[in-house]
């Protein structure tokens, strides 16, 4: 084991997992050229059942988890998205939803306006044609922008991530300025894509640990649509630490495989990490955000939580 790897597993440096990314599905209305998971309209929902997800949500608080992020793919495309989100709230978890905001139903707006729910999305250009080319879906710019505006009108805690794909002609700076002028309270520094998933082809390189931000597994973990546990959604090219369908989350996070994986990630000790692709990297240092989505300060568990039947 290298000296760097020894430093990586120092328990003083790495926080216990309190933030858990749940990849509910790999289906998405869009087919972004840089998608970390290769999501798209023809992809599936995975093998995790509603029962599996609920069992995991039941286990999460006792494993130290305070916030779950519902991500995908596009998480709202899972038929049971809303029941699972309400269930997470009912067991005392905070919920953040990372959505492309291509389509938002009234019941979904009802969820997003709850006090322990936050929202995030990605934006690529202030020019519709350029944004739509990146997402692979005509009309996606108009829909996403309109729903950003509505979220602001409803007072929903929102973060927008602007992603630069490395094309000299992309109007990423202009997109960032547009979101700021719209009044989005949290627009992170312009992110860059990393060589994970579909982006490996776009960047003509393989996935390597140096492409990670250095915060994988540090206070966070991810569970895929098949139940595999990883340090974050971007570290999917590394082995799984275990599967929540066959082992409790807490035992996986305290296991040897998890500790070994933590030792493979180069840590940027004493430096701010660099935000990465659209929704799955570390947070800008000046905010209390993770994964390009907003985490509010912990709200007392005594706050009444609404169940799916209360929508």
UniProtKB/TrEMBL annotation:
Organism: Nonomuraea longicatena
SUPFAM superfamilies in the cross-refs: Radical SAM enzymes (SSF102114)
UniProt domain 4Fe4S-binding SPASM: residue ranges: 213-262
Keywords per UniProt: Iron, Iron-sulfur, Metal-binding, S-adenosyl-L-methionine
Keyword Iron-sulfur: yes
Record protein name field: Radical SAM protein
InterPro entries, per the entry: 4Fe4S-binding_SPASM_dom, Aldolase_TIM, Radical_SAM_PqqE_MftC-like, rSAM, rSAM_sf
Residue span, Radical SAM core domain: 23-172
């Amino acid at each position: 084991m290298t000296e760097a790897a020894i430093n990586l597993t120092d328990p003083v440096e790495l926080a216990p997992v309190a933030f858990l990314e749940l990849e509910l599905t790999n289906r998405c209305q869009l087919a972004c050229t840089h998608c970390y998971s290769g999501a798209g309209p023809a992809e599936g929902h995975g093998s995790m059942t509603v029962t599996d997800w609920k069992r995991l949500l039941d286990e999460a608080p006792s494993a130290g988890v305070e916030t779950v992020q519902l991500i995908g793919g596009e998480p709202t495309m899972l038929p049971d998205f809303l029941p699972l989100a309400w269930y997470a709230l009912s067991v005392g978890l905070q919920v953040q939803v990372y959505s492309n905001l291509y389509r938002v139903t009234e019941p979904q707006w009802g969820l997003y306006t709850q006090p322990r729910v936050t929202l995030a999305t990605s934006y690529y250009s202030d020019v519709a044609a350029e944004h739509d080319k990146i997402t692979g879906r005509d009309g996606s710019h108009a829909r996403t922008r309109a729903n950003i505006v509505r979220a602001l009108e409803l007072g929903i805690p929102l973060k927008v991530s602007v992603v630069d794909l490395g094309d000299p002609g992309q109007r990423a700076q202009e997109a960032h300025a547009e979101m700021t002028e719209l009044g989005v309270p949290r627009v992170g520094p312009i992110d860059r894509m990393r060589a994970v998933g579909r982006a490996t082809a776009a960047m003509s390189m393989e996935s390597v640990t140096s492409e990670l931000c250095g915060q994988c597994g540090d206070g966070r973990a991810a569970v895929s649509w098949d139940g595999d546990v990883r340090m974050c959604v971007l570290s999917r090219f590394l082995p799984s630490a275990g599967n929540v369908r066959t082992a409790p989350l807490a035992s996986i996070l305290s296991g040897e495989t998890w500790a070994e994986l933590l030792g493979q990630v180069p840590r940027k000790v004493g430096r701010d990490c660099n935000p990465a692709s659209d929704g799955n990297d570390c947070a800008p240092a000046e905010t209390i955000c993770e994964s390009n989505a907003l985490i509010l300060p912990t709200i007392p568990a005594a706050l009444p939580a609404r169940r799916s039947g209360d929508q």
